[in-house]
Amino acid sequence: MRYVQLRAFHNVAIHGGFSRAAEALFLTQPAVSDQVRKLEEEYDVLLFNRNKKQVTLTQAGQHLLEITRRMFDVEQQALDLLSESRALRAGKLRIVADAAHHLLHILAAFRRAYPTVQVSIDAGNTETVITSLHAYEADIGVLGEVPQSSDFEILKLNSTPIIAFTSRDYPLAGQTTVTFPELATHPLVMRERGSKTRQKLEAMAAECGVPLTPLIEAEGREAVREIVAAGGGVGFVSSAEFGQDNRLVPISIDAPEMLMDEALICLRERANGKLVNAFFDIARRLAPAAA
């Protein structure tokens, strides 16, 4: 087994094809194909299903990708260690968050300290955050519940209750509180099933003997917000995520308190990466301001 063969396999897997892998490696497509073919022949294993339109991983390929993700990430950490100042000058930090506003003040401080580091932020629910971190598709995650796993380095940012909200002209808009039985009589707008906010809300309502069924299910918090603002029904969010929107009115839920613990997380094995560590250091200094 040669390093170049594993590198060729890894890039075909993460880029989804031989042509894109060749572009990423600055090689010709035949050269990449040859390296993967030699790896498969040497160990008598099929790593990719090949057809005219796409290349997909076999089960063996999926298992090998899990290993090469860790392998090349460790290689990157070694490079970061050997060129620390360069990593903090020209690196890239990938963040996936269920609600980006939880880290805006941290991001602002990070940008001041490391103005040339490129930062990308993608949106996703808790399941997406966890999956992206495990797949090495993100460096840092922000999510609405502290995961019970030793895989992660965790920094709690804040803890706030789940509330309901409606448009200003909705019938419930004049109320300061609402009960589960009342909510059950209104059209409910909820996020997808992977949302921890939805899971906690439905679990508490069921515990109180009032099952809540959404009339509208929307992908993402902003979609829920826009549907509710248009008069589509009642939405739910943690109070920290409600923000400022003159079209909407927050309403407390008259029930046992349902708290969302917003946390900053990364894989423990990647916590010592220079950019990840720098971001967490700033977050730790600012965490009291976020609570």
Automatic annotation (TrEMBL):
Belongs to the LysR transcriptional regulatory family. Residues 1-58 form the HTH lysR-type domain. Keywords: DNA-binding, Transcription, Transcription regulation. Coiled coil: none annotated. This is LysR family transcriptional regulator. It comes from the Bacteria. It holds the Pfam family LysR_substrate. It comes from Shinella yambaruensis.
